[in-house]
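quick one before i forget lol
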Amino acid sequence: MLEEARKRTAALQQSMRDQRIECAVFTDESSMAYLAGFWGYLGVEFGRPSMVVVKAQDAPIIITPLMESEMVSAMTWIDDVRVWEDFGQRTWGAALKSAMGDKPSEIWVERNTIPAIVRNFFEDTYSGVPVKDISPVLGALRMVKSPFEIAVMKEAGQIAGAMMAAAHGSLKVGVPEYESALAVIEAGSRKAATFLTAKGWERFVSPMIHNLQILQSGVDTSMVHRRASVKQYALADPVYFCFCNMAQFKQYKLGFDRMFHVGDIKDDAARVQEAAIEAQQAAIAAIRPGVLAQDVAAAANAVYDARGYASGYRTGRSIGMAYLEAPELKAGDMTVLQAGMTFAVDGGISIDGVTAGRIGDSIVVTETGYEYITSYPRELLVTEH
C-alpha cells in the first residue's frame, strides 16, 4: 500500500507541475489515505484536523495531532510529519502556516470537502489570496485503478459476499431487523480478518465492519437509507440491504445491494424487483471501454420506460477510496469508459409506502467488457418459510 501511495503522490506532483500548481492542501480522509497511506481516528468534526500538504517541487508534509503522531508516522511513507497541540503556540494553524509559507500566490484545496475551520483559517490568514479547487486534478488520477487497487477491491468483494450471505440467513418471520445487522457485522469482520496479518502497515487495518446498516423492510422498503430498527419481519415482507457504507476494506468502498422476500413474495413486489434486476443487467451489459458513461445509464432507463417506471437520478457511480468518485453513470456525463475504472451499478425502483425493487453490484471495466467485483444471485430471492 505505501509504495502505491508514494507512486500516486509522484504522479500528482507531475500533474501539478504540468499545470503550474505550486502547493495543495488535502483534508479529505480518502485523499489522505490515497496519497499518504494513513487515515485518522479523530477527525475535523472534533475540530482536530489532519492534513497532507503536497508541493510540486518538494517533499510532501503531514500535519496531525501530537497524540496521533506515533501511529501516523508508522502508517505513512512520508517522512515530514509535523505535529500540533491543543494549547500553546504549537497550534495546527501555526503548523499549516509553516508548511504553506507567508505569501502563497494561490491556495489549492478540495473545495467541496474542506472543513469550515480550515477554510476560515485560510480566509483569515491569507486574505485576498485566490482559493482554487485541486479535486479535479487528483480525481483524474483516481479514475483508473491500478492492478493493486483492483486486487484489494476484489478482497472487499469477498467480504461483502460473506456479509450478504449472513443477511440472507438471518431472515425469518419474527426476527427483528437489528439481528440481521449484527449478523452482517460479524460475518464481514471475520471474513476481513482472513485477508490481514499483524505485520507492517497491515497491523493498523481493523477487520471490523462498522457504520449503521441501511435496511428497510415491509411497507418501509421504499424509504431509501432507513436504518435497521427493532421492527420484526413479517411473512412476504420485502427486505432491502444496502452495504454502500459498510462493504469496505483498506479504505476501498464498494457498492452492493440486494432485495430479499421473507418466506413468500407478492406479485406486485415480484414485478418491481424483476424490473430493477433487468435494468441493472441492461446497464452492466453496456459497459466496455469506449462507451460513454451516460450511455450506460440510458440502457437502464430504457428498461424503466418500457416497464412503466420513472428513471432514477443515476444508474451508478465510480467507486474507490471515496464513497463517490468521478465519473457517474448518469445522463449528461460524457466520460469515456476505460479499462480499470470501477463502478457501483444499480437497479432501483421505489413505490412510496408500498414496495421497492433494488439491486446493486460493483464491477471493474476490462479490456473487453466488465468483471464483477461483488457476487450474489441476481434473481428473485425468497427465503425458506
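fyi The longest strand covers residues 355-365.
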